[in-house]
Amino acid sequence: MGYLNGEYQILIRQSPFSVPSYAPVQMEADKVRITVKGRQVGNGDTAYGILFGGSAAYAFMVSPLGYITLWRYDPASAKWQAVRPWQTHSAVLKGDSVNVLTVERMGESVAFYVNQTPIYFTPAWRDEGPLTTVRTLGVLAVAYSSPVTCRFDDFEVRYLIRRASEE
């Protein structure tokens, strides 16, 4: 992973191979919004997205072919497993266009957005327990064929604080 022309870049040389990059996190939060701009550069079969989690790590991913998915990391097998399988979604911009991905955790609710469009997984996904707080944050890129480059920009984490009227 490197920084090139104002963007973080992940170059994946092996296939199939995933490269996670974690942001340093100093606190846990149950109200957080994670946003990143991601894109593929050039040809290749890839997916990229946001890593988040507490005791379990999840990845909200898009494919530049127009698909979305939600994965969970299984430490026993040391592999990512689909929590929600790949499904097409019109909000995903194809090719090397920039996609803005957002994961928002509000208490027990987790919301997903691509380019500010809400994503409703089929069937709907709801946190089943292991994600009580968010303390893992980052980006993930996966190559399915030849070497591919993914670039990320404007990675932002906002810890949402309740207003006095909500306490």
Features:
167 residues; mainly beta; 0% helix; Jelly Rolls; six-stranded antiparallel β-sheet
Q: Taking strands numbered 1, 2, ... along the chain, how are they ordered across the largest sheet?
A: 1-2-13-4-9-10-11
Number of strands: 13
CATH topology value: Jelly Rolls
Radius of gyration: 15 Å
Q: What share of residues are in beta strands?
A: over 45%
- Spell out the helices and strands N to C: EEEEEEEEEEEEE
* CATH 4th-level superfamily: Exo-inulinase, domain 1
Q: Regarding CATH, which class?
A: Mainly Beta
| Helix/strand structural class | mainly beta
Note the overall shape: globular
Average pLDDT confidence is 79
| Overall helicity | under 10%
Q: What's the N-to-C terminus distance? A: 42 Å
CATH architectural designation: Sandwich
Number of helices: 0
Secondary structure: elements and pairs:
Layout (H helix, E strand, L loop, with lengths): L1 E3 L2 E6 L4 E6 L8 E11 L4 E8 L3 E7 L3 E8 L4 E10 L10 E8 L2 E6 L2 E3 L16 E8 L4 E12 L8
Antiparallel strand pairs: 1-2, 2-13, 3-12, 4-9, 4-13, 5-6, 5-12, 6-7, 7-8, 9-10, 10-11
